[in-house]
Amino acid sequence: MNLLSSIGKIKGVGEKTAEQFALAGIETAGDLIDFLPRAHEDFSQVTKIINIAPGKVTIKARCEKIATRPVRRGLRITTATLVDETGKLQAVWFNQPYRETQLKTSKEFFFSGEFEFNFNRYQLTNPSAELVSDMPVQTDRILPVYRSIKGLKTPLVRKILAELRPLISMLPETLPASVVQSEKLMSRSQAILGMHFPESMEDIEKARERLAFEELFQLLLASQLNRQENAKLNGWHIPFDQVTVKNFVSKLPFALTGAQRIAAWEILQDFEKKTPMNRLLQGDVGSGKTVVAGLAAVQAAKEGFQTAFMAPTEILASQHAETLSGLLEPLGVKVGLLTGGVKGASRKTLYQQLELGVVDVVVGTHALIQDTVKFHKLGFVVIDEQHRFGVNQRQALLGKSKFMPHLLAMTATPIPRSLALTVYGELDVSILNELPKGRLPIKTKIWSPNSRAQLYSLVDEQIGQGRQAYVICSLIDDNPDNEIKSVQAEYKKLQNSIFKHRRIGLLHGKLKSSEKEAVMKSFADNEIDILVSTTVVEVGVDVPNATAMIIEDADRFGLSQLHQLRGRVGRSGHQSYCYLITSTSSKPTERLREIEKSNDGFYLAEVDLRLRGPGEIYGRAQHGALSLQIATLADTKLIARAQRQAKVFIESGQDLLEYKQLFHQVEQYQRLTTLN
Fold it and tell me: Of 417, 400, 352, whose CA–CA distance to 635 is shortest?
């Protein structure tokens, strides 16, 4: 038996079981060994029902009676009475109807979960249930729990892994010996054994530390090697011209913030270096990233270089083009727009103007990366919301220049500092953390769905004062399987009853580009009072007169998405409001409570990272490829340790090829994390 042995060769794995594992992506012994537990249940401290207190508890009990009932579409509740020799208590599970079949026996189970006050009573909420007879003989009773992929059950994974225990104890080391020793880490085989067969909670902690360190070390090593590679590239030299920059700033209809000035100066200094700029500009919604990019584009144009500005959607590209035209064309810098909507003769003319160098700045969608687009002298590339583009798309645009152009990646989704350091270690980061003068913080409030009437009258009052509002829903059409509000239904309801005296608009992704643009133009021109929309307005839509936003089923959105949506209001000197309507009347989630209390995107990004992990920081082409099973990018102390060791390893001149598995993983991360 070795790591490449087929799963079917392991004792106890028949044809059907092998198929089940294969469906979950586990085809070899090595795959199963690397399938680490998502959690561990500690059944070592068992409490009698008579002694139970609120908090995390484990009891040993039988199920006396159990029943499941549908509460509403999409939600079924299973309630049970659990009994031991000292008393009884109530347990409840949400959307786990299989518990009824599992527990309808007279057998004893260990139940482990949160004993808390819910629905006017104390009860055990969503406890796990393990048959006492299935428990290992040892007294520690700490059991691994595995992800249930394609119906794969934890007891089966445990049973088959037990057959691989001798193989796990012989796993080779994957980290350099010097790193393991200086960081006082467990060996890899000890760590994997500690995860699958823990003897104490301390075992698990040490195993997690070792495996998390390894993941971070690989990622940081990749990042630092990318930085080394970048330093070898030749870029365009764009000298700083004080007169050009001063002229641009003096003609702005507003004063730059301190953060904008610093970011612009960092970019202009990068332009003067021999190596191409590789910079990430992070700015919270409404912080003025486009102006900073515009200032740099003016400097590039003055020296005869073209700028390509790529945005993920037509709406966003059109808005950037409009903003940049207003800022740059009075200075003699010609701006063009290239999206799917630009067709025929206009498109052909634009191609010619780009190739001849007549157009200095072109703003576009991924239409910019097509082979037909040729530049006269591309020196500066700006990629907005860069995580929405894959590696290949970014590289295709950068490849349209003789030398590597200077790259400015912009994001309005603040990336936590720990994540920026780790994932983008080869990038220089500029941060815009100030809002333009005169902007008031948006007031955010969670609303129960039962209080809609009061909320609608508040919004109507604001419209009466000449303001506008958004109503955001997550679905386009009604879905009979759930109660999530759809834009179509909400549009009809508001138009025909509550707001029939107001002008209502409808916007969603299924509309044609021309229809979307017509709706957005009407809203921007104040011909629509309330825009009922999906999340297509999440990025880049700028209507300063809109001061109210209602988000339906707000608990179903991610934290960064809620913050992005909220950023569509609060874009003028008027007080703005964001109302988060929950899908039920139950207690609001931590996510909603956090967004209610803070307008700081950088703080919320850290919270988001803690609540849901790295998420889609990379982009579509790399989605899910950041295979951090154990490490958390919020662990800044471990990141600092791994960063130090990665640096020592590179400076020592050791050959990465000596460590085959480490080399393979580092190479994969290098491809994922590089922007150019």
Answer: 417
CA distances to 175, 176, 183, 184, 189 from 658, in Å: 10, 9, 20, 22, 19
Q: Where are the beta strands (DSSP E) in 433-540?
A: 443-447, 468-472, 504-507, 530-533
Identify the CA nearest to 102 among candidates 153, 52, 57, 150: 153
Asked if 443 contacts 569 with a C-beta cutoff of 8 angstroms, the reply is no
Question: Residue 562 corresponds to which tokens in the numbers above?
Answer: 């809620």
Cα 598 from Cα 602, distance rounded (Å): 10
- From the number of C-beta atoms within 10 Å of its C-beta (0-12, 13-18, 19+), residue 88 rates as exposed
Cα separation, 627 vs 457, in Å, equals: 48
Whether the pLDDT of residue 357 is over 50: the answer is yes
Rounded CA-CA distance 234/402 in Å is 10
CA–CA separation, 117 and 121 (whole Å): 5
* Backbone φ, ψ for residue 93 (5° rounding): -125, 140
Q: Are 128 and 112 in contact (CB under 8 A)?
A: yes
Whether the Cβ atoms of residue 502 and residue 460 lie closer than 8 Å to each other = yes
Q: 19 near 26, Cβ under 8 Å?
A: no
What are the phi and psi torsion angles at 145 (to 5°)?
A: -120, 130
| 60: three-class secondary structure by DSSP | strand
What's the rounded Cα separation, in Å, for the pair 12 and 244? 75
**Closest listed residue to residue 312, CA positions, set 416, 370, 390:** 390
Which 8-state DSSP code applies to residue 264? H
User: Whole-model pTM?
Assistant: 0.69
pLDDT in tens, 193-220: 999 999 888 999 999 999 999 999 998 8
In contact, 40 and 64? CB cutoff 8 Å: no
Distance CA 671, CA 218 (A): 13
- With 50 as the cut, is the pLDDT of residue 618 above it? no
Residues 6+ apart with CB under 8 A from 441: 570, 599
Do 569 and 442 contact (CB within 8 A), yes or no? Answer: yes
User: What is d(CA 620, CA 622) in angstroms, rounded to the nearest whole number?
Assistant: 5
